[in-house]
Amino acid sequence: MKTPLKNALLGATALLLIGAGNARAQVGLTSNVATVALTATKNATLSVTPTASVATLASITDGSNVNDFGPVSLTTAWNLTAGSSVRLVGWFATPAQALANGTDYIPSSKVEGRVGATAYAPFTGAPVGAVGVAGGSLQLFSQSVGAGTRFGSRTDQLDLRLDLTGTTTLAGDYTGTLNLQAIVQ
Amino acid sequence: MPLYKYRLGLLALSALHALGAQELSAQAQIISLAAANPGQLIVTVHSGAVQNLTGVTDNAVNDFPAPVVINTDWNVQQNQTNTMNLVAYFTLPAQAMVGGTTQIPSSRLLGRMTTGIPAAFTAFTQNGLGGVGTAGGSLQLFAVNITNANKKDNRTDNLDLRLNLVGFPPLAAGAYAGVLNIRAVTQ
Question: Does A1 touch chain B (CB under 8 A)?
């Protein structure tokens, strides 16, 4: 075979091989990697849910602290990102008129509450943080929270009573509203 | 004088002939030229590259507020490429989004491209394609047959994203972050 012809064939073969190489390269060709940054935020929550919205004392006994309302079960749930304690506060908007029968009032100092086996205490305390009313509040519990416990709940039985020791009331129906609110501190 | 010059020329030609001189040429050499354009794929996120979903609701479907607008630009050889594919994937499917010690798997993240393959919301649980993506954490967004007419082309698509927490344990409050990768590959 003459040399020029041989070289021409070699060149053509080389071109074919290059072409075949390109064919392989085109399959599986990839682009740059574009990215999308995703962020989903779960907001902090804090809730108090009583199982009943009404507590009733059928018959008041004057001069006695044996005036128990029916117990109320309430669940406090929290899902927090910060804070060291969850506190539950009960309070009356107008301490001097916690319960009213027309113009006859029972002040919050005569209303007592407790959670669990703690001792009864009157609603005469100060607000906790921004929750409550001066002289008409009672902290019912304080639960420590931290890493690993910022997402939780608890259910408590709230006992309420009137301490009418040394007090006489006029006959009639006395009604009032106890506010329950939790706060993180 | 002119006769002298003529004789001198004849003498030169005769001498060359006598030496056997011919017209000279070198051996022909060839240089094969080859220039290959390897092809080009470019994926660009026009908008929605940062997705913020605020106020996640437990046990519910949560849609990211805005679509991811993706432009795919390609320049390939028609006779060497069958399809152009776009794949989105999470590097670690079990940890598509992470917040604290809580991990949200890619099975809880869904994508929809009404102009592509997942016309309805579909979980990122597919396998990779052509070496792109991760097993169980990918979603093929589109596949385009390559012809002579579209061997150099581009398209823009919207990718909608969703976080499905139906049946998922309630999330602790906080931020959950992740990165979705998007890449084109030829087949």
Answer: no
- Sorted by where each begins, the domain ranges of chain B are 40-186
Lowest mean pLDDT among A24-28, A47-51, A162-166, A173-177: A24-28
- Sheet of strand A99-101, all strands in order from the earlier edge strand to the far edge: A104-106, A99-101, A175-176
A14 touching B (Cβ < 8 Å): yes
pLDDT in tens, A154-179: 999 999 999 999 999 999 999 999 99
Domain containing residue A92: CATH number? 2.60.40.1090
Domain for residue A26, yes or no? no
Q: Which domain holds residue A57?
A: 45-184
Higher pLDDT, B48 or A15: B48
Q: Which CATH class is domain B40-186?
A: mainly beta
B39/A33 touch (CB, cutoff 8 Å), yes or no: no
Q: Kindly state whether residue A126 falls inside one of the protein's structural domains.
A: yes
Please indicate whether, in this complex, the C-beta atoms of A3 and B27 are within 8 angstroms of each other.
Answer: yes
Provide, as residue numbers in chain B, all residues whose Cβ is less than 8 Å from the Cβ of A31. Answer: 41-43, 72, 74, 183-185
Q: Which among B27, B79, B183 has CB closest to A30?
A: B183
Which chain A residues are within 8 Å of B53, Cβ to Cβ?
Answer: 38-41
The pLDDT of residue A16 is above 50: no
CA-CA distance, B78 to B144, in Å (whole number)? 12
Distances in whole angstroms, Cα of residue B177 to Cα of each of A56, B26, B81, B180: 50, 72, 36, 10
Average pLDDT over residues B153-160: 98
Through-space distance between the first and last CA atoms of chain B, rounded to whole angstroms: 84
Which two structure tokens, joined as six digits, stand for A121? 């205490």
pLDDT category of residue A30 using cuts at 50, 70 and 90 = very high
Q: How far apart are CA A1 and CA A4, in angstroms?
A: 9
ipTM: 0.82
pTM of the model: 0.76
For chain A, how many structural domains are there in total? 1
Higher-confidence residue of A178 and B77: namely A178
